[in-house]
Write a structure and sequence with these properties.
The chain is globular. 30% of the residues lie in helices and 25% in strands. The model has no long low-confidence stretch (mean pLDDT 92). It is built from 10 helices and 12 strands. By secondary structure, it is of the alpha/beta class. Strands 6-7-8-3-9-10-12-11 form an 8-stranded mixed sheet, sandwiched between helices. A 4-stranded antiparallel sheet has the order 2-1-4-5. The chain binds iron/sulfur cluster and magnesium ion (MG). The site of iron/sulfur cluster (SF4) has 14 residues, from loops. InterPro entries: AAA+_ATPase, ABC_transp_ATP-bind, ABC_transporter-like_ATP-bd, ABC_transporter-like_CS, Oligopep_ABC_C, P-loop_NTPase. This is ABC transporter ATP-binding protein.
Length: 319
């Protein structure tokens, strides 16, 4: 499989000010030197607690928020160097699905116009063709053409997420960043949406960057999984490896808190003490050292480099 997306040393720092016009007091390091690549047709899951920088990573890749530093290469093209109008052209290939489909769908627009809008923005196809595409897509995501004149509030949460997915799909993108796409839904609806996403991936050859705080959701859909903590990617591995043999103490702690269907995977429960430190003032050295049960002297001062411990399994830890 070829690489479709390469993220290199990505950083996003938000300045902290007292008032809008006062001097910068410091930075929230929401994303702090994150690198990984995504292969065409795969699902890379990114998992971590809220505030770990996973959403910001997704948004910075698409330049919905401007990265502070680093490179993002999509199909050989450097997104981070593109001018705004060049970026607009490439946007049709890179779409996003949001957590809350209700907040992301304009309540005053019918489903028909919501779905046509991206085609208009990108100057794709004429009026008649657009209507045809909207109909086809509604059926593909499990709705019908009778829904075209309805408004977002007339749909259930699951249906709204189907509409959100249809809107992302209508420009025939290559890569979809899905940011907590099922977190707002009931568990029974979650698996329907995940299965729909899997079907669509096969049907359209999509690549997903799938962001979630939920380890079982990520496990269900991903081929590989990256774990983030305080703006850093601490471990990344093929799914089976990560869940069966996590190497980073943080991943081990996260996984030990989730019940497993496979009893052979049972492991000691690791209880983490202390809160997640503020990303405005992250600990020195390894950002996890204040909570790590295996912390050593070196961890307090030196940031661990990412090492490949077995093929495709990357860990940033001094152990
Ligand atoms: Fe724990 Fe040290 Fe590894 Fe950080 S580098 S996870 S503190 S052992
Ligand atoms: Mg988020």
């Amino acid at each position: 499989m070829s690489t479709i997306l390469e993220v290199n040393g990505l950083k996003k720092y938000f300045p902290i000010r007292d008032g809008a016009l006062s001097k910068v007091q410091g930075y929230v390091k929401a994303v702090d030197d994150v690198s990984f690549s995504v292969r065409e047709g795969e699902t890379l899951g990114i998992v971590g607690e809220s505030g770990c920088g996973k959403s910001t990573t997704g948004r910075a890749i698409l330049r919905l928020t401007e990265p502070t530093d680093g490179k993002v290469i999509f199909q050989g093209q450097s997104l981070t160097e593109l001018k705004k109008d060049q970026l607009r052209k490439i946007r049709r290939d890179l779409q996003i699905v949001f957590q809350d489909p209700f907040a992301s769908l304009n309540p005053r627009m019918t489903i028909g116009s919501i779905l046509e809008e991206p085609l208009k923005i990108h100057g794709m196809s004429n009026g008649q063709e657009r209507k045809q595409k909207v109909k086809e897509l509604l059926e593909i995501v499990g709705l019908t053409e009778h829904h075209i004149g309805n408004y977002p509030h007339q749909f259930s949460g699951g249906q709204r997420q189907r509409i959100g997915i249809a809107r992302a799909l209508i420009t025939k993108p290559k890569l979809i960043v899905a940011d907590e796409p099922v977190s707002a839904l009931d568990v029974s609806i979650q698996s329907q949406i995940l299965n729909l996403m899997k079907d669509l991936q096969e049907q359209f050859g999509l690549t997903y960057l799938f962001i979630s705080h939920d380890l079982s959701v990520v496990r269900h859909i991903s081929d590989r999984v990256g774990v983030m903590y305080l703006g850093r990617m601490v471990e990344l591995a093929p799914k089976e490896k990560l869940y069966a043999d996590p190497q980073h103490p943080y991943t081990q702690a996260l996984l030990s808190a989730v019940p497993y269907p496979n009893p052979r995977e049972k492991r000691e429960r690791v209880i983490l003490t202390g809160d997640v430190p503020s990303p405005a003032n992250p600990p020195s050295g390894c950002a996890f050292h204040t909570r790590c049960p295996a912390c050593m002297e070196i961890c307090k001062t030196e940031r661990p480099q990412t090492k490949e411990v077995s093929p495709g399994h990357f860990v940033a830890c001094h152990l």
